[in-house]
Amino acid sequence: MATLDRILDRLPLPAFLKPEEQGKHYGVIGDFDTPEDLLRAIRTARTAGYSRMDAYTPFPIHGIDEALGEGRSPLGRIVIVCGLLGLSLAILLQWWTGAVDYKLVIAGKPLFAFEPSVPIMFELSVLLSAFGAVLGMLALNKLPQYYHPAFNYSKWAGATNDRFLLVIEATDPKFNAEEAIKFLNATGSRHSELVEA
Amino acid sequence: MADLAIDPRMELNPPLVQGGMTYADVTEKVAAITEQAPPKQWYIALAISMLLAGVLFASLGYLVATGIGVWGNNSPVGWGWDITNFVWWIGIGHAGTLISAILFLFRQRWRTSINRAAEAMTLFAVACAGIYPLFHTGRPWRAAYWLFPMPNEALNMWQNFRSPLMWDVFAVSTYATVSALFWYVGLIPDLATLRDRAKTRIRQVIFGIMSFGWRGGARQWRHYELAYLLLAGLSTPLVLSVHSIVSFDFATSVIPGWHTTIFPPYFVAGAIFSGFAMVVTLMVGARYLYNLQDLITIKHLENMCKVMLATGMMVGFAYGTEFFIAWYSANPFERYAFVNRAFGPYWWAYWSMIICNVVSPQFFWFKRFRTSIPVMFVLSIFINIGMWFERFVIIATSLHRDFLPSSWGYFSPTIIDISTFVGTMGLFMTLFLLFLRFLPAIAISEVKGVLHQQINDQKGMAH
User: Fold this and answer.
1) CB–CB of A123 and B159 under 8 A?
2) Which of A9, A41, B432, B442 has minimal CB crowding within 10 Å?
């Protein structure tokens, strides 16, 4: 296995195909009953000085980004670039095929005009934007990613059902496993555990 | 809960998730459908649907082996049931996108229980629609380079991009692709739920691969929610454009009865009208089959009846406007086309359309009918029939009386026309039943979001 890892490290693979470099432990995960309990725990943890955290929830919870100190997603910029690319592609396609490569005279009308080109310009802009939104979202989320240390948590199944998990990551400068477990239990976690990387 | 029931706000606005369900109950209710053996009725329905889908493939095989002449299309009615069915199926798909995108942007929380199935319906309806233009080419394996700009040796030329038929190819294929992306993005968190509660290794692996390893991390949700919002924003103009462009196929021609500027909005309203009718037909069935009364409530169904009433009125108004404009234009051909439409040889199709599309939704003015499941089920089928007649009336009546009386004709469908149409319904139902059985038919994570807000609202009311 060690040889395989070394080969994998040398290959110019995208990050999501490589195992993430981390310490021995992923962090400490705590398990909360409600979204409100989770938000309260995140705010307390930030006041206590923890900075590297993530939360796992079965549905998006409003206010969690602010509580974790996350900014706006850059996805909008990706999508607008893709949309403009689609628009240019549509103009280029219709102009080059009809007016340059194979001049198609239909009822004496201009070989290329903007008016009849609008529908395809619109459609290709939407098509490429949609691909940008989906593939951009997957790339920003580093998906597909079939192994992640969070899955090692003994009560992981709750995260996609009805539990609200908070992880204090091992990379946090203030991280100390015992203290983190004690801290999460004090803020209302039902089950806190140190999770292997 | 008893004191909440008498709160006047609750009376006006009954909760969208009923039966005092918890987050875990929502998961259990929806996910269990995919994990248990289906009820007996499901097998019966699937057997009938697959039989009809077999009829479709036999009809299409016969068409390819013999030629397009097996359909009733001929001069002067060169577009017959094939384009009627194409427009009808595409129209049905529109409700799915309306529910998933437009109602999302308008923050209509009631959409969450029905959007997943409605989006699946969109995909299957578009797949059925696509069959008709594809097979109308007669040589479907060559259609790719007739329809898409692919360089090839056989033609050595490019398509005419100034033709609305080409716009249609781009509109429909973009619509199908974006709908599939939107649907799948919505499925990812729910597939992760199925993965995490899988009892067998094979389910765990399949749903694990399909969910891309989704974890529901706060950072992931942040990008995910923006992607969902952007897709909704992109799909909203897209869905309006698709039926507008389909209507351009007719409106940009110079045929009396087709050459009208009212077509784009009129087609879009009709599409939403027929699509909601199909969603009601399917949801009433799915709700009965899987006991989903707490998630797909009477309120959801009643709201859909209101949409049908509104869009039905729009369609009725458009029928009137068409007649007024035909008279007001003082164009004898235009006037003739419309008088002939209502009182000519296709009078029976025209008045069937009026009764189904204009008269039948009027029942939805009354709350008693809007909340009665048998009534809405029957009316939704009437509306589906009426919307089929609308497309048939537009196509057949406008074509059958050519400018020269010597080229007048009358369209009659052949047995293959009928078997192909019935067959697409079989294909549609087969796909829908398989979807109900194997994938979460209700958006689990979205319903939990609604439930969370509902819990908070109830807490607020108690104070």
Assistant:
1) no
2) A9
If contacts are CB pairs under 8 Å, which of residues 165-194 in chain A contact chain B?
Answer: none
List A residues 125-154 in contact with B (Cβ-Cβ < 8 A): 126-127, 129-131, 133-134, 136-138, 140-141, 143-148, 150-151
Q: In this predicted structure, what is the pLDDT of residue B21?
A: 85
Bond before A144 cis per omega within 30 degrees? yes
B81 CA to chain A: closest CA distance, Å? 26
Domain that holds residue A128: 75-140
In a domain, A157, yes or no: no
Q: Is the peptide bond before B76 cis (omega within 30 degrees of 0)?
A: yes
The overall average pLDDT reported for chain B is 91
Q: Mean pLDDT, to the nearest integer, of B265-283?
A: 93
Residue A191 lies in a domain: yes
ipTM of the complex: 0.91
Partners of B125 in the β-ladder: none
**Residue A50's domain is classified under what CATH number?**
3.30.70
Domain boundaries, chain B: 57-141+158-456
Q: What is the pLDDT of residues B412-452, one digit of tens each?
A: 999 999 999 999 999 999 999 999 999 999 999 999 999 99
SS3 at position B58:
helix
Which residues of chain A have a CB within 8 Å of the CB of B223?
A: 73, 75, 136-137, 140-141
Residue with token string 């397009």 = B68
Residues A38 and A79 reside in one and the same domain: no
Which residues in chain A show pLDDT less than 50? 1, 22
B364-384 per-position pLDDT tens digit: 999 999 999 999 999 999 999
A119 lies in the same domain as A173: no
The percent of chain A in helix, strand and coil, each rounded to the nearest 5, is 50, 10, 35
Answer whether A76 sits within 8 Å of B222, measured CB to CB.
Answer: no
| Percentage of chain B modeled with pLDDT above 70 | 97
Among B22, B174, B224, whose Cβ lies nearest the Cβ of A137?
Answer: B224
Tell me the longest C-alpha to C-alpha distance in chain A: 82
Q: In this structure, is residue A5 part of a structural domain?
A: no
